[in-house]
Amino acid sequence: MATQKKKRKTEDENREFKVEWTETFAFTQNLNGLPTCLICQKKLAHNKKSNVERHFATKHVSFSTKYPVGDARKKAVEELQKRQETPISVSNYQKQSSNNVNIASFVVSQEIAKRGKPYTDGEYIKSCFINASEELFRDFTNKAEILKKIKELPLSAKTVKDRIVKMSSNITDQQAEDLKLVSALSIAVDESCDINDTAVSLFVRFISPTGPKEELLGLLPLKGQTGGEDIANAVIECIQKHHIPLDKIVSVSTDGGNSMTDIRNGFVAILKEKINHEILTYHCIIHQEALCVQTFPEEICKVMELVINIINSIIAKALNHRQFEEFLFEMESEYADLLLHNKVRWLSRGNVLKHFASLLTEIKAFLLEKGVHYPELMNDQWIQKFYFMVDVTSHLNQLNHKLQGKGNTIFSMLEEVTSFENKLSLFAQDFERETLIHFPSLLKHRQENNSDIDICYFKTTLLNMREAFLNRFQEFRDSKATLAFVRKPLNATVTELNFSPFNIDIGNFEMQLLDLKNKELWSSKFERLCADMEILEKNKCELSSQHKWSALKDLEKEDVLIFNTWNSIPDSYDQLKKLAFAVLSLFGSTYLCEQSFSSMNLIKSRVRGRLIDENLLSCLKLKTTTYKPDLPKLSKEMQGHCSH
């Protein structure tokens, strides 16, 4: 019987992958030593040239034709190899994929918080995303894979809440790290009420390595009494919880309420007792400006009251309101509706009066048609006071816009107030000359009706308001030389500066200042700063004159320009920089606190009245912060999971 020939095994032949197969057939060797196609990732079982050649010739004809053997194919294969240089295992791919889904979930949650939307909007956004993707990616070959990824996004209400809390905590950690490095910081404190409780908003301003920061440190609920001691205890507890030494505080700004400023039991008095050095205290410059406006005579205040009553009589009743809107449309009026007055909003009064003045003829006609009679609307003295209010509040609104917003230094805010004081003198002279150049509404009324304007009355009103301005803002005026130092150190006189709150070595400061003034290399930087400030101010004036208030927000901030200049000065001028950064950190108003209360009431609306304080703070922090949460770090700390 013939002996059966033993069948040869391929693995016994010790076949090896040939390097030339890479350039010729676009194959590479995998970790197991077997050939893998660079084009389609197909793995072959054996290192046989015939198998490799057959796969390439049958599966990749188009590649063979497009890239013939030679330089063209060599370059194409090299490009394919670059894509394969960092092969990802299946488990690593799954981990990375899960990580990407988590980060996407954080991004959506962050947008929900920044816009003050409820947690439940997560599922709504996801549903919109899926439905839109069905059409958007209709012609994509990997459409199913894209939709699968979107459906894996965890965006349930609980998930969104947890993501927001984690991002808020991460931002708090970043704030704490930067606050450890600063030598001086300022706080702004204000109190307001949400739909359930009284809350104190605590903002901190400091100079970080990257520039000026104005950050929400805490939203402090006051469940019981809201006296100065209660506010002080809550604020101090919050500051110490963030491991911030109280002695770093150099300034505090408040709304000027009695609980804040009472000499014995006010928040400021109690805080001063806890700090081992002098601190600067400021009554919000915008609140003081609002108090100056209250010098209007009683008759002019009654004008505003009547305007509000007329507006309410038209808008409060739905039928009247609809008919009035239709009436304005038929009359082709400048505005399509009236504005309601809101006492909380600083700019509300001016905007309401402006709209009312533009629609006064239409309002008279509409009320006459309805049989409603207001004799004041026919009284020339009342009309004069009304148009005077329209023009004055327009000027006040311009001042308000300049005082509000982020990035303003105290010195620039003081300059705006001082400028307005001088404008009030100019306005009084305008009446004395009877030219009314700065009162266009009143001038138009005089020209159209040949009215005899009560010059003395209006001039006296303006001078009384100017007197009110001059009697306020004293704490800002007292610090003027120190506040100006950040912009004009070359003009500074050491004896005029207040060093008490800032722990400055005065001897070294004097030497460094003298050196700075005599070194053109460094002094020239402040000359360039002045030039940059001139350009910025010119742009502000142009936009303000055109009433493009939103465009003002896009301009480079004043404090950033100043920081960049001082940051370019070497650390050998450490005492100068220490004073400059401390002054640059001062709050001139509680505008950010007021703004946060508006956001708070948007977030904690009546339908979200059960939102707890910790979650409200998390939402507010994401809405107000300039920090960016470290999403990759947060994502890696979490275990990815699909939404339900």
Question: How would you explain this protein's 3D organization?
Answer:
This protein is of the alpha/beta class. It is built from 30 helices and 7 strands. The chain has helices at 20-25, 49-59, 61-66, 71-83, 90-114, 121-136, 143-152, 157-181, 228-241, 258-261, 267-274, 285-293, 298-315, 318-330, 348-358, 360-370, 380-403, 410-433, 440-449, 455-470, 474-478, 480-484, 506-518, 520-545, 549-552, 558-567, 574-584, 591-603, 613-624, 631-636; strands spanning 27-29, 35-37, 185-193, 198-208, 211-222, 249-254, 280-283. Helix 5 packs across helix 8 (157-181) and helix 18 runs antiparallel to helix 20 (455-470). The protein is globular and about 110 Å long. The N and C termini lie far apart (71 Å). InterPro entries: RNaseH-like_sf. This is General transcription factor II-I repeat domain-containing protein 2A.
